[in-house]
Every structure is written in structure tokens, then in C-alpha cells.
Design goal:
The chain has about 290 residues and is α+β, with helices and mostly antiparallel strands. It is about 30% helix and about 25% strand.
Length: about 290
């Protein structure tokens, strides 16, 4: 496909399925596998730079956890929703297939995470190393989507995120907003954006529910592997060529090299285990 140059909106009806109402979400949180539930709390300085704390649910049941999300400043990811929440995925899958057909993509891997987030939550400036469709189902989000040029997305940062030697969050400057495309996302809308486009998110004072669907194609898989190999080369003192100037056959060769590098564990994953720094219980929700 020719990847999008600007964000694009689609309509869906998944928010009317009954699966994102409070009772359904409480029951889901009661049964969702603990190892697939991530709780993140972000704080910001005056320049918009972010620090991240990660937590665990403690002994909270689903209803208590849901109220804690509504009353705090947290972002809860229910990972692997494509497997762990089949009732919702039965609605997501056909909606995504229609979007994929419109975009001209042939996914080889599709995953999803259900996101429950507090009214005042902000997600920092970052990028995703995959194609993304964000299905919005409750609340209102405002997204800033930025250009993918070197000024907004330096190639070494892309490499480090893909190698997992740094988190997805990127250095941010307030001046970047002058070049952003702003989208206010309402329930019943799905948004996609250019591949690797940096973006940030602010909830608009209400509890939000969305599903973030990530998809890989052979094109994105080769690109991801090429960035991984380039990052390894850079760590070993070799300056790689700009990805925009790297032809398809060279990207394929770099992808093959990345498989060997990973197999030999030459670039260890430095962020696979975040230390849990708080427990999200009813008594602590105001501090989250």
C-alpha cells in the first residue's frame, strides 16, 4: 500500500454492543488474566516531559478497579484482547477487515489491547512500530498526530524503541504542536494514521474506553527488522544509511540480519520488566 500521509477516520457501531458498559467492564476486569493487565500513571513537567509509574491492581475487584480508573489519572491496558476478550473481538474483526480493504493492506498479524483510561489521563508523545487503528467506544479523546520526518522522529530513537532499549515515549517539545494534525475522537469512530507517526493523547474530562488494534504486514515487518539491524550496527559504531534512502532489497537483507542478531541475543531487551511502584486499590486511587 501507499501509507497514509494524514490521519483518517472511519465509523463503527461497536460502542452499541453493550460490551463497554460499566457492568460488562466490571465483570471483564474480574476475570481478565492478571498477567495481561497493565496499569500506567503518567506525570508531566511544565515542558511536557513525562515520567511513568506502573502499578498493579492489588486486591481490588472489578467494580472497585473500574471506579479507581474513573477517579484517578491512570491508563489501564488489557493486553491480547484478540484472544482474551473474544466477545469484543467478534465485533472488532469485521470492522477492521473493512478498514484494511479500504487502506489496501494485507495484514499478516493483528493484535489488540482494550484501554480503560481516567478522565484527565494524558498519553505522552510516542510512536507505534506497527500499523494502528484506534476504535473509540466511550468518552472523548483529543489526539495530536505529528509528521514522521527526522525533526519529529529521529531515526536513532526509532531504532532504540524497536530494539526495546527504550520505551515508546520520545523527547517532546511544545513547538512540535505547530505541525500537528489534531483530531477529537468520539464514540463510534475509528482512527488510523501514517505508519510510525508520533502522536500524543489527552482525554477530555470523561472516562474513556478504546481498543487499539496493531497490525503488521510484510512491509512493516521488513521495515521493523531493518530498523532493528540498523540500531545494532549503530551501537557497534557503524552509522547506517537513512531508512528513506534504503532500497527494498537492502531492507530485506537487514531484516534477515535482525533475525540472526535476535537469535544470538546480541541486543538484550532492557524494558521487558517494569518495577510495579503502586497498587491501585480504592484507598489509593486519588493518588494514582
Amino acid at each position: 500500500m501507499t501509507w497514509l500521509s494524514q490521519p483518517k477516520l472511519y465509523d463503527h457501531q461497536i460502542h452499541q454492543s453493550g460490551l463497554v458498559e460499566d457492568d460488562a467492564l466490571s465483570a471483564l476486569l474480574d476475570r481478565y488474566p492478571a498477567e495481561l493487565l497493565d496499569i500506567n500513571a503518567y506525570s508531566y513537567d511544565a515542558e511536557g516531559q513525562v515520567s511513568l509509574a506502573t502499578g498493579e491492581r492489588g486486591r481490588a475487584d472489578g467494580a472497585t478497579l473500574l471506579e479507581a480508573i474513573k477517579g484517578g489519572r491512570v491508563w489501564v491496558n488489557l493486553r491480547d484482547a484478540h484472544e482474551a476478550h473474544p466477545d469484543l473481538w467478534r465485533h472488532i474483526q469485521p470492522a477492521f477487515e473493512a478498514i484494511a480493504q479500504d487502506l489496501g493492506v494485507r495484514p499478516i498479524k493483528v493484535t489488540g489491547q482494550l484501554i480503560l483510561s481516567s478522565p484527565q489521563t494524558k498519553v505522552p508523545y510516542h510512536f507505534d512500530a506497527a500499523g494502528v487503528v484506534l476504535f473509540h467506544m466511550r468518552g472523548t479523546k483529543r489526539l495530536w498526530v505529528y509528521p514522521t520526518d527526522e525533526a519529529h522522529l529521529p531515526q536513532p530513537s526509532v531504532e532504540n524503541v524497536i530494539m526495546r532499549v527504550q520505551a515508546e515515549e520520545l523527547p517532546y517539545r511544545l513547538a512540535y504542536d505547530d505541525n500537528a494534525r489534531i483530531v477529537e475522537l468520539q464514540p463510534g469512530q475509528a482512527l488510523t494514521w501514517p505508519l510510525y507517526a508520533p502522536h500524543r493523547v489527552e482525554n477530555q474530562g470523561v472516562f474513556n474506553v478504546s481498543l487499539s488494534l496493531d497490525f503488521q504486514t510484510w512491509e512493516t515487518r521488513l521495515l521493523r527488522g531493518a530498523h532493528f539491524a540498523n540500531g545494532a550496527l549503530r551501537r557497534w559504531g557503524v552509522k547506517p544509511a537513512a531508512m528513506d534512502a534504503t532500497p527494498a532489497f537492502a531492507r530485506a537483507a537487514l531484516w534477515a540480519a535482525s533475525l540472526a542478531i535476535k537469535k544470538a541475543n546480541l541486543v538484550p531487551n532492557l524494558i521487558k520488566d517494569y518495577e510495579r511502584s503502586f497498587a491501585l486499590t480504592e484507598s489509593e486511587r486519588s493518588a494514582a
